[in-house]
């Protein structure tokens, strides 16, 4: 067992539009917290791994090729590998637990 300290806590360094922090990485999955402040921008690109987003706090929209949805505490959304998506219209500081399967970048290598 491993307790993931700091997982799902809102944290964005000053001046950053968003922040991602990984808490766990094993071959078959990785877990991290993605935070976007009110008015912040989500600049992520499609991933080569499947993702599950669990919204812990905040409010905004998740837009994807297959549709869009309002998200808030308790929202759980699956985004398949390769589907373009991003959080928009963040009206309350957003903290999202992100689960990648398999681990983020394991199919494509680390980002450049």
UniProtKB/TrEMBL annotation:
Q: Which InterPro entries match?
A: Cupin_2, RmlC-like_jellyroll, RmlC_Cupin_sf
Domain spans labelled Cupin type-2? 34-99
Any Pfam family hit: Cupin_2
Q: What is the lineage of its organism?
A: Bacteria, Bacillati, Actinomycetota, Actinomycetes, Pseudonocardiales
Q: Where is the signal peptide?
A: none
Q: What is this protein called?
A: Cupin domain-containing protein
């Amino acid at each position: 067992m491993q307790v993931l300290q700091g997982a799902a806590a809102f944290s964005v360094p000053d001046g950053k539009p968003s922040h991602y922090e990984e808490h766990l990485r094993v071959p078959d999955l990785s877990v991290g917290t993605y935070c976007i402040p009110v008015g912040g921008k989500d600049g992520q690109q499609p991933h080569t791994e499947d993702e599950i987003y669990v919204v812990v706090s905040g409010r905004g929209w998740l837009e994807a090729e297959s549709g869009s949805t309002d998200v808030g505490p308790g929202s759980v959304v699956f985004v398949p590998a390769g589907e373009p998506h991003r959080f928009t219209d963040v009206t309350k500081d957003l903290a999202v637990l992100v689960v990648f399967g398999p681990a983020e970048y394991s199919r494509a290598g680390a980002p450049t």
